[in-house]
Fold this sequence. Notes:
The chain is built from 16 helices and 14 strands. By secondary structure, it is of the alpha/beta class.
Amino acid sequence: MSKILVIEDESAIRRVLVKILTEENDKYQVHEAEDGLKGMEALKKEDFDLVLCDIKMPKMDGVEVLEATKKIKPEIPFIMISGHGDLDTAVNTMRLGAFDYISKPPDLNRLLTTVRNAVDRKELVVENKILKKKVSKNYEMIGESAEIENIKEIIEKVAPTDARVLITGPNGTGKELVAHWLHQKSPRSSAPFIEVNCAAIPSELIESELFGHVKGAFTSAVKDRAGKFEAANKGTIFLDEVGDMSLSAQAKVLRALQENKISRVGTDKDIKVDVRVLAATNKNLKKEIEEGNFREDLYHRLAVILIQVPALNDRRDDIPLLIDHFAQKIASEQGSAPKSFSKKALKLLQGYDWTGNVRELRNVVERLIILGGQEVSEEDVKLFASK
């Protein structure tokens, strides 16, 4: 049931609004406030799905109520109620975040349509927030070691900016996870996150993949095609395994970073892009620079912020937390009750040499859950977690 608050100092109009809303839809629960101050008291105590608010009121006017509410509960849509002399103010409230405005006396059809649209929008906003939380949980960094806490701290500081980040570390440590977290916590989180595995794309195709191509640019280019940079416009592009990128592609990426422009393969026409660039590699790029495999100027463009993701062997204290996380997640995926691990099993797993890092640990946990007993024992680990 949608909760609607009507803030209106003219009792006759307030009664009309309440009557219209309650008679129109039995799913509307309508509350009343006779002035702006009473309205603010109600808004602080309860959550509403919509507010209908008069503009001209004693004690606290509608504009003040709108501004105050947007600071504490920005997701609540406001429909402003305006008299003939308030129309300019009503239009200005749209700039302050109001959903819409209606004039006095209210037109029945316009009022009901606007209310329905505002309530639907609120539901979409809530659903989107829930979805974002689910997505964020999928990319949650698990661990309480000093190394992981340091990474979390850097992410909190860097995510709200557009600073480029170079994420380094061995395979399987969670570099992609860091990139997702940076995006999810950034102002660009509602825009695309486009991932490119530079190692998986043949060197002759990497430029087309990143920047697109025009028809006839090469034999198989049968039509114009946008690249990953265009797809990521207003959002984030993640260049995974950037150390495997060809030198010619590196030159084009450098230009994109310097000028915020790209050109498709087969044309010199510039296309402006607004993209945040995150990159990751398991290679020592300084060594690659010395050997002539990586451009030093591109390295300095990418490495504004450096995040080093540690190997699992360097944060063994996090292994029990990771095992519990994976056990819960695997059980959820399989629709079964999560299995626990005995203390001896955990201790044994903590002592292993995790050359495949977190990715390897996840695979081992899944194997133990499938093949082990109701509680995974030390014996199960010895039998099935072959190293």
